[in-house]
Amino acid sequence: MGIIDRTPSPADKLIVALVALHALGSNDVTQLLTSNLNVSRGHLTGRRPGRFHTIYLDQLTHELALTWLRDRHRRWPTSANPHLLVSQVTAMDNDGPVHSPHHGQPDLQEAGG
Questions:
Q1: Which structural domains are found in the chain, ordered by start?
Q2: Counting Cβ atoms within 10 Å, is residue 79 exposed (0-12), middle (13-18) or buried (19+)?
Q3: What is the DSSP letter of 36?
Q4: Running DSSP on this structure, what letter comes out for residue 33?
Q5: Closest by CA position to 84, among listed 28, 10, 48, 32
Q6: pLDDT tens digits for 42-99?
Q7: 82 φ/ψ angles, rounded to the nearest 5 degrees
Q8: Distances (CA, A) of 27 to 44, 98, 108
């Protein structure tokens, strides 16, 4: 059983994939907006200091992103929070903090990340 399989929630699974497979840092992950994800093209636009870059999603990460979007919509269908990753606390707070950068962190540390 791999690290993603052991990760409990769809949001955390996506975070693990973005960090472990695509080398995004916790700050990069928390700053992603839903508008940064292009599902039909299978890529994310990430922000780096002074520039944007395209992250081409592998099949696993693409599927995890779709699963998270379905779960997010099921849980908070009226959320207007622009961040891709939200939590129970932040989903309905457009001006509040984004999803915690520490979700999934224990699993990453356990795996040596």
A1: 3-108 (1.10.443.10)
A2: middle
A3: G
A4: B
A5: 32
A6: 999 988 778 888 999 999 999 999 999 999 999 999 999 999 999 888 888 876 556 5
A7: -75, -15
A8: 15, 10, 15
